[in-house]
Here is the input.
Amino acid sequence: MGVPEAVAHEGQRLHGFDVRQVTPLPDLRAVAYRVEHGHSGARLIHIAADDNENLFSVTLPTVPWDDTGAAHILEHSVLGGSRKYPVRQPFFEMLKMSMGTFINAMTGSDYTTYPVASTVRADLFNLADVYFDAVFHPLLTEETFQREGHRLTPADPAEPTGPLGVAGIVYNEMKGYYGQPEVRLSAEAEAALLPDTIYAKDSGGRPEAIPDLTYADLRRFYATYYHPSDAFFFTYGDIPLSEYLAFLDPRLAEFARRPTDAAIARQARWRSPRRTEHEYQVGEGEATTEKTYLLLQWLAGTATDPADDIAFEVLDWILDGNEGAPLRKALVDSKLGQAPAHTGYRSMGEEGVYQVGLKGSEADRAERFERLVLDTLQVIADGEMAPERVAAAFHQAGYGHLEIQSQFPLHLRYRVVEPWRLGADPLAFASMRPHLEACRQRYRDDPRLFNRLIRERLLENPHRLLTVLRPSTDWQPRLDAAFAARMAAVRAARSAEELRHIAAVSADVERGAGTPNPPEAVALLPQLRVADVPAKPRHIPTTTLRVADGIELLRNDVFTNGVNYLQLDLDASGLTEEQWRYVPRYVEAVHKLGAGRRDYEQVAEQVAASSGGIHCFPILARSAAADARGRRRLRFALKALDPQMEDALGVLTDMVFAVNPRDAARLEVVLGQAVAGARTGLVNGGAGTAMRYAGDTLTVEGHLSELMYGGPQLRLVERLHGDFARAGERLMGEIERIRDALAAAGGIVASFTGSDRACDAVAATLAGWRQRLGAGGGGVTPAALAVPAGEARVGLAAPLQVAYCAQLLPAPHYAHPDSPLLAVGAHLITVDYIRPEIRFKGTAYGGSCGYDALGAQLALASWQDPHVARTLGVFAAVGNYVSGATWTQTDVDRAIIATLKDGERPIRPAEATGTALHRHLAGLTPAMRDQRHSATLAATPQSVKAAVLAALETGLTRGATCVLAGRRMLEEGNRELGARALVLRDVLTGE
Ligand SMILES: [Zn+2]
Here is the structure.
């Protein structure tokens, strides 16, 4: 990838656009063009780069007027049909048949953005065409508003004049979202920190305010903000600028320029700090001790100033960047709460906010927490900062700005459009390297730079807010009672005839939502043909080196921009079931305890100084060969720059061979953090929690995953933590035994992407490990692991306002000839059955049917779902749907295109390193991937249907179901399910 030559000059007119500015961006090997459309006033920035992942986006300033979520409901609604494409849900129709690497829309706190990306040129322009029409010519019907936003509906459709409720996709999405305590924490804190600005309002919509939005308000909101004069277009990639302009010019011709005013007032600064307190719901019988969140925030900088941004980023690495960092350590050592959380610098419009948080605390410790943070900052500001610590912080900050991440075009869009729409220099954040260098120079000139930053922007800054979020067992019931009273009042004011009308309208919306588009309407949409799909999937160019007996090193030839990536796997197939329970504790010991002769602080500092992070995690995979053998491994992943590679490998070696869990005091603290994390994780995990629980009784991998991340792990850490004086010794022993078993197993496979020099260092290090490893060559005998028996249908009760439903079915494995057809079939089931039934009609936020070929499973899921019994009924009827489906070859072709897009994803270095290793261990050769690609292209309606029906016939009788939801929702669901009722358990206690 070289720097493209400039193809336009300032002052030139191209396709109705005036070229205002041409800026080479050597760091990105790109050129930026800033142009403006003469007639409409539309502004565009195009970044030309030698990258075929092209991106088209339009962003509009959508400043909220209140908490009714108009901007968010509008984001959903404009994608619901437009002038040129008057079909239901053109957005979802495109999802069915596009190669897009990104297709979505997002509502920010003061803007809405519509980005699409694809590596296939025709596809990108198809998507751009549909998006342009959606954004500037939406139909915005009242029916769409009622489906996406909200509508009154009888709580029981069989009783049209009975009690009323509210339905709506955004309404349920936000109910699910606000059910997470950390979401409430940040929403309440933001509203209190910026009370006089638009950021005190939630553009996404608060569930209690959404029903106040009227259809007329929505249209008025649209008319206010959606016009090309207000819009910021951003494009990226190797499609020439002139093609984008030629695409836009005729489409913009019908819009005359209009004055724009999107200025957002900044918050007036306070003279003294403030405090705010709120509640969130925990389970009804749940203890409330040590479940309070505390958050301290300052309006500390200007978000559109890159100098502020980089200085706070480095400061945050200094204060909180690793386990030995002084602010993090002070919080942990204070024992005021279970774990530091949410610490860092973030932007809210133009305001830059620095914040420090603690979870697992108590409301009556809030003042001590605040005092501790201020005192700690005072000591740091007054003292000397160790130059090594500051150097490590600069080093850490550098990675984020060097790495070529997945979804790179999308990240770049954010960095350019964010300052641009706020009136600042759009290219100021495009490359952060110069700002990082300038900051380093400022620090060299003034070694007290960060001391001053702490003093002036934090300690002496009175615009400081302390937020307390307390657990409550009756907060939600009080809200529910208020909602019920409100619904009762609405109902009381209506005649029986009016109520029947409300029920009829709601039923109409649901019926309409579930009616598929007629083929002639879908045919209006621009579409790819199967012939447009590349003939073969993309392969990662990988060569294999044999470093020593039993040690293999894969070398991936992918551009990395100077960062080296290493991932390596240790054979864990010999671990027993009991040992797998302790694997998460082993992983945590690697991340948070000492190793070799170094204590945890020294290890943390060394990791920060020498690498961009070292991580450890278990891998539970299966072979792609017909035996589908389990591949259970422990993976270590690191990234480092050339000069630090040897040091980084030294730390890694210590971690692998000499992780040391014997610091009992530290181990106990870490365990306390794990308790807090496991509790919130189970509830917030939503669909993942339900899916994992369902998988427990189906496969060994599913069972181990539930042991490590599900309820059993929470119970284990609670037990260990509650009885640490006795259980601590056992825990230390288990961690050591896992460490030693991994080393004794030998057999290492590594994957590397980066420079020759670093690759040599990796090979030398691995060769040096040979004598410390066991026999090697995969000589270890796999432990015999069994799948437990258990109930096939379970409901997990949690403090939630929505449900997450999951049903897992065994299905043919990757090696089975039906496997490629099942992938196509699962896509068709998602887009033609599950999504219409669960989302469009059921008003859940989402639903899908997924097929995991290597895991040999089909998974049906819903999320942020207002229903339990109804959704399980939809799942149960999937076989009937498939039997009756009348898929055409056109439908199947669209599904083929969407299924094959994964093989066309751009190869970015970090992801490639892990994927190459995964494919190698699963035995997924390029020839197998090519063969699967061809088999997918050959799918027909008949072959897909036969494969899916065969899979469902056996799968549906042997599957497992789990629903995570509020207890009352589950009980109500069980009344409807009758004989098929779920066995109810509490998600936290398992009882
Ligand atoms: Zn949404």
Summary: The longest helix spans residues 819-841. The chain has 35 helices and 30 strands.
